[in-house]
Amino acid sequence: MSMLAVFNQKGGVGKTTTAFNLAAAMRRDNVHPLMIDLDPQCHLTMLSGAQTQLGTSLYGFYKGEKYLTDLIQQLPNGLNLIPSHIELCKIDMLLGKETKIATKLKHAIHDEMLATPDMPIIMDCCPMLGVLSVNAIVASERVLVPVAADFLSYQGAVQLTNTLQGLEAVLKRPIKRRYVLTRFNERRKFVKDIIGKLQDTFGDDLCQTRIHESASLAEALACGKDVFSYNPASRAAKDYANLFDELVSSGFLPIGD
Asked: Signal peptide position in this chain (predicted)?
């Protein structure tokens, strides 16, 4: 099975875009993933064009009113989604002090037998370390960190590494992770310096694939489509196909296991 949390504590780095298009890359390769939107901003839900109300969103699961399987929606592009809702922003306040809250999502995925070899799970996390993001990291054991090609994003990635190392100490196990460079434009100043810093800091955990800035990617998002549906011949589609292939070939995503 394969479960992946897409997480960064810094916003604006292409987190949701990466979760959405990586899932689409899987579907293009005849894999049918389940996306879970754990971000109260609901960007993945809105981007997917999903219909959601409070009781039919992930909020219903955390309030104990729904099973995860009750909430799955099949999207027109063949992907599956459990949608978010803005009320999820209250989960930390409502449930943050509950015992074993960190494992709630993990146990539900196991108990409802959602973690199957033919349905990988991609979790789009909110850009803060709270109940929802911890649930995703504990459940998945793998984290993909999108990092935009600028100095502040690099600093944010370093801070996130410290955060994950702290979680490893609490969980008493390693958290597998990969960092992927997004919004890449080789014509910008200092890009080579940023790449050098990322390579020095993260070594083999830095993906070789780079997600370039792309008009097709921006246009696809504006239309509520993944890049493969919008323009399968685009550079952005090639980038996300390459990212999926790299994550699988390196063993980071054990698709089919």
From this structure: none
